[in-house]
Amino acid sequence: VAKAQGRSGTVVFKPAMRTQVEHRAKMLSNARGAITGQRIEPYYQPKVWLGSGRLAGFEALLRWRNPQGQMEAPVTIQAAFDDRRLATGMGRQVLAAVINDMREWLEAGLEFGHVAVNASSAELQSSHFAEQILESLRSVGVPTRCLELEVTEAVPLGQNADGIAQALRTLSSEGVRIALDDFGTGYASLLHLKQHPVDVLKIEQSFVCNLPSSSEDAAILSAVLDLGRNLGLTTVAEGIETAEQAEYLRAAGCDQGQGYFLGRPAPRGAMADLITAWQPYLPRCLDQRSAQH
Ligand code: C2E
Ligand code: MG
Ligand code: MG
Ligand code: MG
Fold first, then answer.
1. Any idea where the EAL domain is (predicted)?
2. Nearest residue CA, atom 21 of ligand 1?
3. Which end of the chain lies in a sparser environment, N or C, as judged by fewer CB atoms within 10 Å?
4. Cα 178 from chain centroid?
């Protein structure tokens, strides 16, 4: 490619390109190391019913321990999500840890609601994805209603979409809820809603961060909330950082919220205390959707 772009056949390889290539290679090698070293783990961020202030559940967010021992967020290994094997490897470790944590919390009588796990398109396209999740849950006795799967609009609709649609239908029919993540950022969002058994709409944080002052974002939010209501979906706003935003979203009729204002992602070691702290706000019955409102 560099050669074809060069004048008179010379190879033009700008320093910036080398930096990019090296950066990508470093990300992939970091991800590989984290997977083989079992240094990938979920952090958990609370999701809250905005009307009642009760805990709805948590979202599991991937963190990995770098060779220096610090925890890092997905952005530092972003390129690994485009690599089928690495994306699948990371996803497996997160899911296994989440299912194991949920089993421990259930055994300890900690009522956590549900855990939402992000799934990459590579995972969704891997064979027996749905069956493996269902089998993992069954084998440790965690009910399917405890798991939610977050799918982004980046998941392809055309090629391989049949396999993905089938996997989502299988999970959904067994009681795993499906959330459409980062809603409003992709070109095919409405088609996704038609094609997949979606239960939850997560509104991308870039539509939230300028509320309430941005009239454009307020109009977009109101349209998305209408859409969610008309389709009977649970709406969730991401990236709530202020009390003002939480109150605005609640008044606008958004069902759930998530963001630093409501709680930062926390490691598993902090979870028993965190879940206990939320307990007074949580209804006794986990499985009745209506009881959670
Ligand atoms: P996402 O699923 O949309 O997750 C929300 C992101 O917003 C998280 O970033 C979270 O830490 C961050 N966040 C939460 N509250 C706030 C807030 O109040 N303000 C701001 N500015 N940010 C907030 P994180 O953890 O860095 O994850 C980034 C993305 O990486 C996620 O976006 C998701 O697409 C992906 N990801 C995370 N964990 C996994 C995973 O286990 N598997 C896969 N396939 N993707 C994952
Ligand atoms: Mg998500
Ligand atoms: Mg999101
Ligand atoms: Mg997001």
1. 24-279
2. 239
3. N
4. 11
Alpha-carbon separation of residue 152 from 113, 156, 179 (angstroms) = 22, 9, 8
Helix intervals (H) in 159-258 = 161-173, 189-195, 215-231, 243-252
Give the closest ligand to the alpha carbon of residue 209. 1
Q: CA separation (Å) from 149 to 119, 168, 263?
A: 7, 9, 20
Q: Whose CA is nearest to atom 25 of ligand 1?
A: 61
Whether cis (ω within 30° of 0) applies to the bond prior to 212 is yes
Q: Which of 181, 211, 238, 258 to mutate to test the pocket of ligand 1 (most atoms within 8 A of CB)?
A: 238
The pTM of this model reads 0.91
CB of 91 closer than 6 angstroms to any ligand 1 atom: yes
Extract the tokens encoding 155.
């998941």
The values of phi and psi at residue 175, to 5°, are 105, 5
CA 234 to CA 255: how far, in whole Å? Answer: 6
Q: What is the ipTM of this complex?
A: 0.98
The ligand with the least distance to the CA atom of 84 is 1
